[in-house]
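To the wet lab folks,

You asked to see what we're planning to order before we commit. Fair enough. Below is the target structure as tokens, and below that is the sequence we designed to fit it. If anything looks off to you, flag it before the synthesis order goes out.
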């Protein structure tokens, strides 16, 4: 197997990962295990491959955030699998969604709660890793800002340090608030999750303005569809299954856009790849 352009590789892995996330969530929102479980398995494989193949290419900041994405995905897949295997779900789904007829195995609240507890531990672990890394970065930043005795210290601003973050790391900054949002969701804390989701929207709008391209738009659709899904599940107890259908269709549309981006070809992906991989 010949060597592959690292920029093209980063582009392919990024869009392939997003595509499988979207398919996983589309099936999950519409309670379709035949879509969710295969897509979830592929997403784990792709993110594992991304870490392995980009380990010697990306910066420390990028790798920390990529590992955090993997931890979120691992907990997310465990959560989805537990719902399909052991959680019956609202009875209305048995009638409104013809492809869902209850759990794959016998409903078991004990096993579902244990899986949910493990999911919360994984999410909390990902958040703790990011908090530790950000604290270390702030300590390094503060140390560099201290005046030296023999020569004046340079004046640094937060913006000047933000400019040093690679485009890949900026694209992955969403994962911290997204982990916090999903952790709140596992506890059914809608109003606690909402500020974190709003922060992700702000980060994605920033990427749309600064970078452009299809990626931040696809991610924004994903976030807004998750908001509708979370609202349906936590605030109205899935009394209106059409809300989850709308979320599922929006996620499917975003998946189609991700597939189009994935199939753009080597010639068309060079500029976008540079934005994903960074300098």
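Sequence we intend to order:
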């Amino acid at each position: 197997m010949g060597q592959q352009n690292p920029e093209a590789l980063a582009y392919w892995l990024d869009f392939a990962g997003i595509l499988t996330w979207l398919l996983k969530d589309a099936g999950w929102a519409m309670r379709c295990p035949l879509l969710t479980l295969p897509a979830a398995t592929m997403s784990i494989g792709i993110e594992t491959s991304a870490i392995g193949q980009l380990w010697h290419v990306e910066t420390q900041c990028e790798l920390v955030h990529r590992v955090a994405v993997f931890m979120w995905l691992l907990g997310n897949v465990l959560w989805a699998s537990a719902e399909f295997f052991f959680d019956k779900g609202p009875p209305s789904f048995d009638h409104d969604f013809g492809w869902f007829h209850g759990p794959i195995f016998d409903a078991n609240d004990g096993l579902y709660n244990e899986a949910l507890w493990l999911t919360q531990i994984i999410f909390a672990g990902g958040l703790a890793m990011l908090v530790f890394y950000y604290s270390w970065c702030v300590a390094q930043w503060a140390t560099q800002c201290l005046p030296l005795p023999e020569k004046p210290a340079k004046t640094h601003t937060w913006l000047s340090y933000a400019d040093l973050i690679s485009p890949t790391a900026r694209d992955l900054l969403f994962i911290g608030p997204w982990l916090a949002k999903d952790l709140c969701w596992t506890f059914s804390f809608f109003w606690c999750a909402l500020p974190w989701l709003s922060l992700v929207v702000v980060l994605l709008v920033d990427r749309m303005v600064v970078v452009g391209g299809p990626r931040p738009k696809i991610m924004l659709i994903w976030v807004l569809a998750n908001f509708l899904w979370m609202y349906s599940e936590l605030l109205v107890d899935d009394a209106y299954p059409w809300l989850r259908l709308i979320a599922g269709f929006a996620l499917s549309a975003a998946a189609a856009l991700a597939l189009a981006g994935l199939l753009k070809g080597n010639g068309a992906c060079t500029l976008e790849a540079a934005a994903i991989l960074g300098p």
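Structural context that might help your review: Residues 146-163, 266-279 have pLDDT under 50 and may be disordered. The longest helix spans residues 109-145.

Thanks,
Computational group
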